[in-house]
## 1
Amino acid sequence: MRLDRGMDTIAGSLITAFDYVWGRLTGRLAGLTDDEYFWEPVAGCWSLRQGGNRRWHLDGGGGGGPAPDPVPVTTIAWRLGHLGGIAVGGFARRRFGDGALTTGQIAFAPTAADVTAFLDEHYRNWRSGLTGLTPADWAAPLGPPWGPYAEDNTVDLALHVLDEVIHHGAEVALLRDLYSHRSSLRGQGAVPRSG
């Protein structure tokens, strides 16, 4: 299938979809507090934590590798750190930059007040990369550096990243809803924030 024909329309639709779901996600963050950002609804949550070196890091390396079984529940801080820094920011750097971004280089948002700027920085880089592509760029295989995804193209990559934004955005929205009703949750209720 040739993607370069009509690619301007497809690209425009993808970017419009990204802008819509990104706006929905960031709009849903209005009023987010630090207590909510770091809320651990069950024991054993993965979160964003400050290490001995004073840098903030995501438990479990931030995802992207084999997940433990069972997969831990994650906090809003973890989900947004993974989404903004690793998924959107990491793929932007890999596809449109030098590809050298590692989790140790990401300056994760240590507070709820910092999260919008953190997300927006990474989204701007991703969106700028997408808008700078030609139809041929969208359709070309990603190439050997992408390993098993070498034959995939930027449309495939963009759809994967869009899925990340949609599903993590929905998870964040659900955690916000649960947090606002935490006093009426059945069972143990909320687990106090650790670390």
## 2
Amino acid sequence: MKNLIIVSGSTRLNKEPSQPIPAIQRFDGVFIRLVRKYYRQTKDIDVLILSPVYGLISSEEKIDFREPIGENWRELNLDNNIVSKLRESNLKVLKKVLSKRNYTEITSNGALEDYATIVRLAL
């Protein structure tokens, strides 16, 4: 059985190459680098990355370089409509992923209330 890791994207991004590359290579924050190192060592994990631009995406989804929104996520001021759309989209992605596979472990570097939502969806 596989493990699922849900990690927040970073405002630190690799600008090169200019063509789309997997999200796990495009984002370059501390958590992503740790996951990337572990990901190379084993293939018994699935990784989802949460981004304010792309929403919740697979680590293998190819994405373009886009300038980060703000210096860090804590200072991000998104319109409530955008937040609502992202939340709805993210829950759909999460439900789809959890319906396709049983995971032995789910890990997230998100807030505790976000993790509680993940656990409820996994049950």
